[in-house]
Amino acid sequence: MLSTGLGSGYCPFAPGTAGTIVGIPVYLVFSTFPWPVLLLSVTALSFLAVYVSGEAERMFGERDPSAVVIDEIAGLQVALFLVPPSVFSVAAGFVLFRFFDVVKPFPVRACERLPGGWGIVADDLAAGLYSVLVLQVLIRVL
Fold this sequence. Notes:
The chain is built from six helices and no strands. It has 142 residues and is mostly helical. It has one domain. 41% of the residues are buried.
């Protein structure tokens, strides 16, 4: 259940996008925490995602199964890290994260080559880093 984002990973089209949508309420809860607790929570979720993804990979018997979307949930938390919650910031963070997750600029694609759960999750965390950097600039400019 955790690895598939409460089943959202079984969406017949765009399971990664469905998993990212599940990450929005997680962000809304996390965004109420003071920043040190937020950092600890996002870090803990990321490590949980690595473990759960690795186990799911073994259970599904394939590398980076499309039904595993906890990596998108964790990646979105990075994409929206320390971003004040608003319709604009959540929508922009969502779009930016999906863009960088799909396009996979350097070194995002290289992260996929890591073994097990690390390879499943690391590319999404890297895409989240690209997203939060761009989003922080957008928030300050707009």
